């Protein structure tokens, strides 16, 4: 005889088992859906951090995390914008250091694009056009430099006051009230670097370097005799070289333009086109775009016409930045944008901060390339550590000033060491040359290699952009 209670109990257990199984299956599905949703949302926001990078054994912020985020954003940016040119990314090498590397360069060209009308703005696909060139600030030319050298040789200093950067630099005042910044260093390499970097800028016809000249501290000379006490207070040694740079008023900090900041560190004719059309200020794709939400009808792209003053000012600034990037690469300057790039691994916001040793003259919008003392000597000794950063901006620059490229080609043909030595002899006194040696042969050879590297970048850009114009 069947036990009804046993059957009922068995049915109840089977029912409970089925309910338990269904509940567990539902929980697993819900958990899986939650994980997938969280993972998708994390990818959409660019917040995914690979396993193994979350541990923090050091109190200092991780050097890897912001760079991983940068790479995620960079790839999102490549997918969201056409014609983008971002061949450089950061990776971690075998020693655990973060270094930038160059990827295969890829540009999507639209030769039939009716909006790619840059007549007068870009010439031959890689040079700034006449409309930009004619609006560049005058800056300082050879006449200004000669006049400054003649002025210093016939004047005398009445006081030295703290200022002009580093501790032993001084703000110099002359008898007629004019002023100068005096650069004093124990190491003559940095005096050479400042002076020869200035000469190189002159040879390349760059008007952004303030007139400078070298002198020797001698309290018996007419130039320095009235400032003997201030020289002693500054702890300057007699018979040491200094560089006297003309004082420039109305300077303000200069930031790094958006096209040269991560995640947008590139500049070519398509970027210029986007600026003229106002497309560079369009927001990036948001979360709803990434999740496939319905899109509104896009507004038509305006046809290029007369540029408003704001856009033209931006292009004029970028044209000066083209020269700055070339110049800083040639001299291997550590103390300007490379400083920001190097510290980016610890501070992802530093590229939005003002650039070191760069200023803008408020009345003319002239960019002033200040303090180039690390150039050509000290910076060359540290190439192994910083070369990847030096090349980062150059690798993404594909628009240049034609005169700069022409002068660079001429300098390469004539021999940079010969030209620099000639200007050194013509612009300094025998007393200065007795203390300051010429540019070392090793530096001259490195400079030739770096000139070739810049000219190679110009040729590469010519092949990529001019053919498609």
What is the structure about, briefly put?
The protein is built from 16 helices and 12 strands. With 469 residues, it is α+β, with helices and mostly antiparallel strands.
Question: What can you see in these coordinates?
Answer:
- The protein is 45% helix and 12% strand.
- The protein is of the alpha+beta class and 469 residues long.
- It has a 5-stranded antiparallel β-sheet, sandwiched between helices. A 3-stranded antiparallel β-sheet has the order 10-11-12.
- A hairpin with a 5-residue loop joins strand 1 (88-92) and strand 2 (98-102).
- Helix 9 (309-331) runs antiparallel to helix 12 (383-394) and helix 9 packs across helix 16.
- The chain is globular.
Helix content: 40-55%
By DSSP, the count of extended strands is: 12
SSE arrangement, N to C:
HHEEEEHHEEEHEHEEHHHHEEHHHHHH
First-last Cα distance: 97 Å
Spatial strand arrangement across the major sheet: 5-6-7-9-8
How much of the sequence lies in strands comes to 5-15%
Give the rounded overall mean pLDDT.
Answer: 78
Tally of helical runs: 16
Query: Which stretches of 5+ consecutive residues score pLDDT under 50?
Result: 1-17, 43-92, 98-115, 282-304
Rg calc: 30 Å
Q: Name the shape in a single word.
A: globular
Question: Largest beta sheet, briefly?
Answer: 5 strands, antiparallel
Structural category? alpha+beta
